[in-house]
Design brief:
Number of strands: 7
CATH topology of the largest domain: Rossmann fold
Largest sheet: 5 strands, parallel
Strand content: 15-25%
CATH architecture of the largest domain: 3-Layer(aba) Sandwich
CATH class of the largest domain: Alpha Beta
Strand order of the largest sheet: 5-4-1-6-7
Structural class: alpha/beta
CATH superfamily of the largest domain: HAD superfamily/HAD-like
Order of helices and strands: EEHHHHEHEHEHHEHEH
Length: 186
Amino acid sequence: MDAIDAVCFDAFGTLIHFAGRRVNPYRHLITATGEKLPLLISNQSIDIFARQHGLDHLIPVMRKELENEISGLQLFNDVEDVIQQLRSCNKKIAVCSNLAAEYGPVVRTMLPDMDAYVFSFEVGEVKPAPAIYQSVCKSLNVKPSKILFVGDSKRCDFIGPANFGMKSFWLRRIKGQALSMQIFQS
């Protein structure tokens, strides 16, 4: 673990999961506009997006779905222990995720005291764009080669960071894989 100075985690599917049925309140906007990207790269509420596309009538429905989805979010059982162990090894820890703006405060609350939070809606870029990984390095003040990126998306959390010069680990929770200190020692 001496080879790395920092660990950057993806949020959803890596550290946080939906305990109930995933609703995705943004699906109404995606269906109406045919686009997902603007929701992930703009620091705007679901209400503003709805109004921009003449979907004001859906705001109460989307707000209720968003509230239900957020209330069902949980950390995976292994997260707190691994973060504590990384802290005891003096590693910097970041969270980097492609998120719509409403999820940012929730992630910050569920994962307090990270050294950095890098979210697509704040950076204006989504993984695997190099700019978002550069933002991680800048936020942590750590060179790419000294960061291990851990996440559940092969393209965004494994290939993207590796192409940027980071070490990376593809965490496949759907295959039963858990976070383990062994990940950080290889």
